[in-house]
Amino acid sequence: MSKWYEEELEPGLRAQYGLKKILHSGQSKFQTVDIVDLEPFGRTLLVDGLIQSSQIDEYVYHEALVHPALLSHPCPKSVFIGGGGEGSTAREVLRHATVERCLMVDIDEDVVKFCRENLPENAAAWTDPRFELVIADAKATLENSPTNFDVIIMDLDDPLEGGPCYQLYSVEFYQTVKRKLNPGGIFITQSGQAGITRHHLVWSPVYSTLKQVFPAVKAYTQAVYSFLDEWGWNIASTDESISPLLLSPEEVDKRIAARIKGEMKFLDGESYTGLYCLSKKHRQTLAAETAVLSIEKGTFAVMHSQGLCVAEAGSAEVS
Amino acid sequence: MSKWYEEELEPGLRAQYGLKKILHSGQSKFQTVDIVDLEPFGRTLLVDGLIQSSQIDEYVYHEALVHPALLSHPCPKSVFIGGGGEGSTAREVLRHATVERCLMVDIDEDVVKFCRENLPENAAAWTDPRFELVIADAKATLENSPTNFDVIIMDLDDPLEGGPCYQLYSVEFYQTVKRKLNPGGIFITQSGQAGITRHHLVWSPVYSTLKQVFPAVKAYTQAVYSFLDEWGWNIASTDESISPLLLSPEEVDKRIAARIKGEMKFLDGESYTGLYCLSKKHRQTLAAETAVLSIEKGTFAVMHSQGLCVAEAGSAEVS
Amino acid sequence: MSKWYEEELEPGLRAQYGLKKILHSGQSKFQTVDIVDLEPFGRTLLVDGLIQSSQIDEYVYHEALVHPALLSHPCPKSVFIGGGGEGSTAREVLRHATVERCLMVDIDEDVVKFCRENLPENAAAWTDPRFELVIADAKATLENSPTNFDVIIMDLDDPLEGGPCYQLYSVEFYQTVKRKLNPGGIFITQSGQAGITRHHLVWSPVYSTLKQVFPAVKAYTQAVYSFLDEWGWNIASTDESISPLLLSPEEVDKRIAARIKGEMKFLDGESYTGLYCLSKKHRQTLAAETAVLSIEKGTFAVMHSQGLCVAEAGSAEVS
Amino acid sequence: MSKWYEEELEPGLRAQYGLKKILHSGQSKFQTVDIVDLEPFGRTLLVDGLIQSSQIDEYVYHEALVHPALLSHPCPKSVFIGGGGEGSTAREVLRHATVERCLMVDIDEDVVKFCRENLPENAAAWTDPRFELVIADAKATLENSPTNFDVIIMDLDDPLEGGPCYQLYSVEFYQTVKRKLNPGGIFITQSGQAGITRHHLVWSPVYSTLKQVFPAVKAYTQAVYSFLDEWGWNIASTDESISPLLLSPEEVDKRIAARIKGEMKFLDGESYTGLYCLSKKHRQTLAAETAVLSIEKGTFAVMHSQGLCVAEAGSAEVS
């Protein structure tokens, strides 16, 4: 290999991926956007130099993001996606036969455009009659939406300081989300790295923030090879009697069979159960977490090249 | 960072670790041995340039290796460790109050010596009166052992071609193992990378090979951050009515409380359950796997710098 | 920088160049060909992963290759270029007002095609009426040429084993060259790395080989930044009374003023003099060199990824 | 190679050296100091992550630094070295039979200590009765010196902002130097990278600054392989009628034979002449250079990780 794509996973930890081809490389209004073919991962989207999703295992991330949320709901008809510009999240949502409307709101027109041109596996989603695309700020669009949703999915970048979406990881935004969910509505958000050494940076602060707003919240994780770590999500229900967050493996398999078109590759009843089995260490961190991410209070999780920090108003403490 | 330790995880995928200090670096009779301080992982043992274990999360690997085996057994008194030169596996075994004898057989005197000098967290194990160390070939030592064991643990390098231990991943060796286990005996072996893209290289062939010998076998996985992937193990029981391979989370927590000294960091009932929840993809691979690793037939899993292959007698097929 | 181009300069010595853009990347019949924009060097041609020439300082290499040869000749009218597919060598030759015909013979159509499309600084050369391009083997074309030449220039890849041009560094080829030169004819060939530690690999063997054939030979060197070392050439004259190899700085400046169109950037009388001032170490190597590169005797300089060797018939000695 | 030492040569240009052994690695009061064995260069001293000198070719740098200065002087008896902690500069000075006293003033005790322990090739210098070592600031020591010197040599780090020695590249310091030289005294200073693309950063500003103070100044360069570029020096004479800066090659060879003990490896009359033959481009830069490095005016050359700049009072312009 002569050409390499390099990512700094954390200070002092670099990954280098053999670079076979650059399909697109540019600077959008918000971020740098690369779509490349990597030797170990196939076609890959990188935003600001960080892998967002790659051909070899994007299904793990997207099945783990979308289906636990939609399966928890008794009959999800309307779905809001914040971010998700690559199209894979919409693709998974639209596999659910119950879904009548899927509104995706991404702020970065370039990401959408270049992914649409270069990621053929999502082609069907873009032209599905139930699918609606808006290029705008997800927060403002959701606040002003005349209708509510059964499921709201946040498929965002990490909360990079100065990036386009750290405000979408805040107690204020989660209050908006809750208001915009129908009874029994489900909220799911990607929540950053969640391995044994880094899950306290974004994943557990998002968890404790959601606990301020929702009666039921669960944090879960799954190893994603092309992210070179476990990844994290947080899921919340407005009413667990309608939409319970933890289903039995048998119930998951039954709902998949009844509702989802085509074969899953990663998720079924057993792997769903695995998502929710956290290590002792992870559960200790969640139990001890007190951070509340807030725009008003100026406390939010930000990711620097030198690591992540939870900034308190007027004082930043680097983790 | 000016100094880096570089590992090729697979062709076209490199990791580079900031190198703070070299504590030992040399060539033993069998392999190169490095003990270093790495920026992201702390003190780390590397053999032939591959990370074996690092301070930051070795407990994940070693708790996942040792405790499921010992907890499955109703009362493990005698334990055989093949490999494990670093000392951490013995350390975890010796935390079990039931254990009366722990025999560790490692072929590489240098690994043992340099780890003993440089990894203070295992100091207590080396001087425990129940612990016995033999520098020898684990296969021959086990074959000639006058006594049998309740639990046999293989904590080996990957089956590198020309390396010291690929014969310890074979149907012939597993027959020896079975013969040397007491009734209800448990066998556990590390089984290489086990993420969504690489679990077919060693993990599933070891599984199907063990199925030729043992009435009950289970394959399981766990993300290990410093390995930058999920890792894999295979566990087998000579008699599931005495030593069942899958315990309920409650039973695990009960046995931990009753038998193990000190606090676990990673393992408890819930994370134990997570170990055994495999993805749909992993289970499909296990179900379809037909390889039988055999010294006689010349079929064994070998790892090259260019990937891994399962070699059939007279013909090598690179995976 | 996220994207890098990596070159192995010698075993244990890597350079990495920030990769801004890939303009062309492909495999020709003979070699891999990359034309890229590099952060430190600008637009750059790489063949088989090795930098051939880059925008930032290609003029140093090409002025040092072409002008000493043409300036030594009293009135160069016909010039043969072997290799030179990039076009820069022809560009420099065609700046000489005396030149009536410049025949370039390159074996690799793709190198020529892609350089012509992507290196605008050589545009004028390709359409100069005095310029003639043949895609063919330089050796066969020269042997069969009905006419002789005043100057023959070899602007080739290094003599890579299995590469397209190691036979063009041989006593047999140099005999052909001599036969095809007019009286007072000048031969110049690039001769690989020539820094204080690597000049014995190709540069001095080419020197001693040329000494077998030509009455006057001089070896010279010049630092080329984008090659990260000094580079080497060997120049030979069929008759020093017509074409002396060493001119005074004043004579060089006079001939440049009289013959060459446009401004030079690197070469003039003083820097010309510097080319020929070799270090004591370099001169000792030349004096002691006995290698004769020969196709018949099977002794030729070959460059491996593991270094270079001068292979004797039936025995290879790695330097 | 698993272990690498990485140096950033300029933004977007990295070199990586196979790291065989770390002999010393630490933080002195002033800088980080590494003494390592590198695969391509042998034993090597690095300060603040930048190669200072390596076994394979340190003689090129040190012969080019020391001998042109001492050979220009008719009979150098007393020599002052600023910096030079490694000991090689003193070693070369002490080879001159005329030298009666060599005073070396280095600010960093650790560099001196660790080099003395780890670089056996300089052992003789440290115990030569003519040699005197002072750990102190070279500027203050020179200012307060009760005696003058025949030759003053500055063998310093590059003028890193915040580093220990950027004030030693200034018009004020050069006035002190001139005052402390005996009639016909010679001053020589290392002057940083001097290849075709980077010689304007330190080398030419130092040249034009020296021109403010000394009647005769010459800038020269030499490729140094382990620096991966040409290196630069500036030499000045207080009186060219006593100490001419440019000797004929014959005169150089004569003085070497008469005065220097042992064999030179790099320098003799011819290579000396080559040092002074600058390219057209280098000479154009020198001719156009107007910078005057001054402590009072706050104009000095500083090297950042992001390149170098000549800072004017109150305004920094990055080159």
From TrEMBL, chains A, B, C, D:
Coiled coil region boundaries: none
Which PANTHER family would you find in this protein's record?
THERMOSPERMINE SYNTHASE ACAULIS5 (PTHR43317)
Q: What is its EC number?
A: 2.5.1.79
Check the record and name the InterPro entries matching this protein: PABS, SAM-dependent_MTases_sf, Spermi_synthase, Spermidine_synt_N, Spermidine_synt_N_sf
Q: Keywords, A to Z?
A: Polyamine biosynthesis, Transferase
Describe the location of the PABS domain by residue ranges: 2-238
Protein name as catalogued:
thermospermine synthase
Family stated for the protein in its record:
Belongs to the spermidine/spermine synthase family.
Q: What class of enzyme is it?
A: transferase
What's the source species for this entry? Chrysochromulina tobinii
GO BP: polyamine biosynthetic process
Lineage of the source organism? Eukaryota, Haptista, Haptophyta, Prymnesiophyceae, Prymnesiales
Query: Which residues constitute the catalytic centre?
Result: 155 (proton acceptor)
What GO molecular function terms would the record report? thermospermine synthase activity
Alphabetical list of Gene3D superfamilies matching this protein: Spermidine synthase, tetramerisation domain, Vaccinia Virus protein VP39
Q: Which reaction does it catalyse?
A: S-adenosyl 3-(methylsulfanyl)propylamine + spermidine = thermospermine + S-methyl-5'-thioadenosine + H(+)
